[in-house]
Design a protein that fits this description.
By secondary structure, this protein is an alpha+beta fold. It folds into two domains: 2-52; 118-238, Glucose Permease (Domain IIA), CATH 2.70.70. It contains three helices and twelve strands; from the N terminus they run H-H-H-E-E-E-E-E-E-E-E-E-E-E-E. It has helices at 2-15, 17-52, 75-78, and strands at residues 118-120, 123-130, 135-139, 142-145, 151-153, 158-166, 170-176, 181-188, 199-200, 205-208, 222-229, 232-234. Strands 1, 4, 6, 7, 8, 9, 11 and 12 form an eight-stranded antiparallel β-sheet that branches. Strands 2-3 form a two-stranded antiparallel ribbon. Strands 5-10 form a two-stranded antiparallel ribbon. The longest helix is centred in the first third of the chain and has 36 residues, at 17-52.
């Protein structure tokens, strides 16, 4: 009797709440088994990783900070790549330099200050007899024979450097032509047509022929004319136009 009663209780248990309890226990057993298996695999993987890395080496993961402009797109990244030509560049041929112009200035032209014949020539290398001084001496210019009162003209344009009364050559006008050359007009009348500092062109009236040169007073009426290049007297006939 007792046995029948126990069987009925067991049957009631499985058909009632007991069925759900057994089902819950089975699910719990399955979950625990899955957890144990997962934990074992993880431990095994960690062990294998430790062996590969050499035992007790510590593995650290470094996370680099994102750049400040990570949200921006560099325009250079969007630019198309530069395409370079494989053809060699053509050589640059320089044009030959033009020769510098060698302009040669025309020689200065001198005109005769008075019209007449050369009565006494230029001579600094040989001595000539001087009628007035009654001795032998050099002559630094030329004496051009002309009438007293004849107009004396500038042989070339320039600036009147001085108008003086010389003790030997009398009234004398000197013109600076600006290139180292000076012209001298002596034995003039005391009254001249120009003053020091004035600019005169070739052919401008300077004065008239007189008798003021005491060192040549024994000669006939004439103009004493000199050319001085950088202070040294030169032959005027070399420069005067024919």
């Amino acid at each position: 009797m007792n046995s029948s009663s126990s069987d009925r209780k067991s049957e009631g248990f499985f058909t009632g709440k007991g069925f759900y309890i057994v089902l819950f226990l089975c699910a719990a057993v399955i979950g625990v088994s899955a957890w144990v298996m997962a934990t074992g695999n993880e431990a095994m993987n960690q062990s294998e990783l430790t062996e590969v890395m050499g035992g007790s080496h510590r593995v650290e993961t470094v996370i680099a900070p994102a750049p400040e402009n990570s949200g921006r797109i560099d325009e250079t990244e969007l630019a198309p790549p530069e395409i370079r030509s494989e053809e060699p560049a053509e050589p640059v041929v320089e044009a030959p330099a033009e020769p510098a112009s060698t302009a040669v200035s025309a020689p200065a032209v001198y005109v005769w200050p008075v019209l007449g014949e050369v009565a006494r020539e230029y001579s600094v290398a040989a001595l000539h007899y001087d009628e007035t001084m009654r001795d032998w001496r050099t002559h630094r210019g030329i004496d051009i024979a002309c009438e007293s009162g004849a107009k004396v003209l500038a042989a070339r344009g320039g600036k009147v450097e001085s108008v003086v009364s010389d003790g030997l050559y009398g009234t004398m006008v000197t013109i600076d032509h600006g290139d180292g050359m000076r012209s001298v007009y002596a034995n003039l009348s005391p009254e001249t047509a120009v003053k020091a500092g004035e600019w005169v062109d070739a052919g401008v009236l300077l004065g008239t022929v007189g008798t003021s040169a005491l060192c040549e007073v024994a000669q006939a009426s004439h103009l004493h004319f000199e050319l001085r290049l950088n202070g040294a007297c030169v032959d005027p006939t070399v420069y005067l136009s024919a």
